[in-house]
Amino acid sequence: MATADYTKYLPLSEATFYILVALDEPLHGYAIMQKVEAISEGTVVIGPGTLYGAFTTLEKQGLIEKVKEEDRRKSYGLTERGREVLAEQLRRLQIMVRNGGAAVDVQKGKAA
Amino acid sequence: MSGNTVIKFKWFWDDADHAIESWLQDMARQGLHLKRVSCLRTVFVFERGAPADVTYRVDFLLMRADPHYLQLFKDAGWEHVDQLLGWQYWRAPTRAGRATEIFTDIPSMIKKYQRVLWLFLAAWLPTVLLTPFNYGKGVYSSPTFLWSLAGLIGLTLYAVVRLLLRIRKLRAQAPS
Hints:
- The complex is a heterodimer.
- By secondary structure, chain A is an alpha+beta fold.
- Chain A has helices at about 15-20, 30-40, 50-60, 80-110; strands at about 25-30, 65-70, 75-80.
- In chain A, strands 1-3-2 form a 3-stranded antiparallel sheet.
- By secondary structure, chain B is an alpha+beta fold.
- Chain B contains 4 helices and 6 strands, in the order βαβββαββαα.
- A 3-stranded antiparallel sheet of chain B has the order 1-3-2.
- At the A-B interface, helix 2 and helix 3 of A face helix 2 and helix 3 of B.
C-alpha cells in the first residue's frame, strides 16, 4: 500500500505533538499533563480545557483511542494511525532541524 | 440565608469571559467567594470569607459537564464552582510559577467561542426559520410579540458579532 496521506493532520501543534508523544504508553489526562511538562522541560504546559478538547478531536481523527476507564478517568493510547502521523511529523521535524542547523552554521561562519 | 451571603447583579456579554474572570478575582481579593450563578448569568451569589488570591476561569460546554471533564480539571487542581447554561466556573488558588490557565493554546480558546456560537444557532434557527410561516397567525399577529422577537434576535446578533470579532482577534494572534 502506498504511504497514506497524512498532510491533513500536519503540522501538529506543539501541544498535539506532545500529547501523542506522551501516549506512547496509555495514560489518563492528568498523567499526560504532568508527563508533557516534564519531558518538554517545562516548555509546553497543557491546561485541562485544552487537553479535554484535544481528546475529542484526536479520538474523532482516529489518532488516539480510549483503552481504559476507571474512577472517572479515561486512559488513552496511540492508534496505529496516530503512530504513523507522529512518525511523519518527526521525519519533517528532522528535515527542519537539519536545514535550520545548516543556516545557523552559515551565519556563524559569516560572523567569524 | 445567612448574613454571609452577598448577591450582586451584573451583565456580561458572551465574549466577556475574561471580564467575568477578573471581576470574580477582584471579589475574591475582597473576601467574596463565588457560590452560585443564576438568572441568565446576571445574579452572582457570593459567600463572605477571608480575602484570597484566587484564579477564576470560565469554560463553555454544549452539553452538561460529564464526569471525565470534571475529574480532569479536579486532578489539575481546579475547583468546580457552578455551571449555568453550559458555562463552567472554575477556580484555583493563584500560586507563583503554577500554570493557572485552563486553555493553553489559541485554537482551543477559539473552539470555546465556536461552541457558544453553535448554541446560539441551535437556539435561534428554528424560531427564525419558522417566523415567515407563522407570521400573522396567533401570537405572530401581535405587534408587541413581533417587536419583542425582533429585539431578541437583534440582541442575539449583536452577541454573535462580538463573538466573531473575538475569534478574529484570536486568529490574528495565532502562529502560522
